[in-house]
Amino acid sequence: PPSPEVPPAGTMCGILAVLGVGDVSLAKRSRIIELSRRLRHRGPDWSGIHSFEDCYLAHQRLAIVDPTSGDQPLYNEDKTVVVTVNGEIYNHEELKAKLKHHKFQTGSDCEVIAHLYEEYGEEFVDMLDGMFSFVLLDTRDKSFIAARDAIGICPLYMGWGLDGSVWFSSEMKALSDDCERFISFPPGHLYSSKTGGLRRWYNPPWFSESIPSAPYDPLLIRESFEKAVIKRLMTDVPFGVLLSGGLDSSLVASVVSRHLAETKVARQWGNKLHTFCIGLKV
Ligand SMILES: NC(=O)CC[C@H](N)C(=O)O
Predict the structure, then answer these.
(1) Whole-angstrom distance, CA of residue 55 vs CA of residue 252
(2) What is the pLDDT of residues 157-181, one digit of tens each?
(3) pTM (2 decimals)?
(4) Is 5 helix (H, G, I), strand (E, B) or coil?
(5) What is the dihedral of CA 165, 169, 173, 177, to 10 degrees?
(6) Which stretches make up the Glutamine amidotransferase type-2 domain (predicted)?
(7) Which of 7, 92, 98, 261 is 20 to 30 A away from residue 235, measured at CA?
(8) Span 76-80, mean pLDDT?
(9) pLDDT of residue 4
(10) Mean pLDDT for the chain overall
(11) Best residue for ligand 1 mutational test, from 85, 128, 134, 234 (most atoms within 8 Å of Cβ)
């Protein structure tokens, strides 16, 4: 799992989805926009909402990849599949290469989710390498799915309204007042409206092992660590590293500074690494 000291790029963005609310009034829409605004601090760059009958998908964006055209919700070609995502899909380019006959409308890493769903159905979640929480609505049969990354880096909550509606949100504050009951969405799980239940999509072989048996291999640890840091440099906007003063954040900063010059972001913003520390005045 990534260190919490990895730059916060992508840990923000706010999503809110309300499905099957049985109310298509303007008042309901305004209420949902108002609730989505409670997540504004998670994404100052854009606010978006898509409604289809009595289903609403809202987004507050902190733009990381393709800031100019990647506003959300995102869609498939004919806009029958709608998706609102918080997260980063690190292998989006490889996945796009598998979807040659699909037309992409944005450069967002997250758009791939709508097209993968069209191609593979809900099983596609296992193909994503990244951190994410998302809600996807298939307007053709009014079904929806929601999923959270393997270890729950991106937050997600799920709630149920008295009117039979199902809610998802990045933070509890957008659903606590309108839901009769709500839960923290379990990491590595997927909710599908078709089956009406949650199931674990993340099933690595080591889940069933009681004692991990790989021999100690420092070179492998080093390579994996470097790879994990490098793939998180996928950004079109400047970023920094939070230094805690400990070993982990120093290692992250040293790997980043060695690889910064090769990144897309360095060509535009320069290859000087910005670091931040938090201090207390006593
Ligand atoms: N902050 C986010 O969750 C970013 C979402 C998406 N990857 C983007 O760049 O816009």
Answers:
(1) 42
(2) 999 999 999 999 999 999 999 999 9
(3) 0.92
(4) coil
(5) 0
(6) 13-196
(7) 98
(8) 97
(9) 41
(10) 93
(11) 85
> Catalytic residue at 13?
yes
> 37-62 burial by CB neighbour count: b if 16+ within 10 A, else e?
ebbeebbeeebbbbbbebbbbbbbbb
Name the band, by pLDDT with cuts 50, 70 and 90, for residue 11.
low
CA atoms within 13 A on the CB side of 120: 15
Q: Which atom of ligand 1 lies closest to the CA of 109?
A: 7
Ligand 1 contacts (CB < 6 A) are 10, 12-13, 61-65, 70, 85-88, 108-110
Q: Which helix (H) or strand (E) holds 258?
A: helix 247-259
Q: Which domains does the chain have, with CATH numbers?
A: 14-205 (3.60.20.10), 217-276 (no CATH)
Predicted complex ipTM exceeds 0.85:
yes
133 Cα to the center of ligand 1, angstroms: 11
At residue 122, does pLDDT exceed 90?
yes
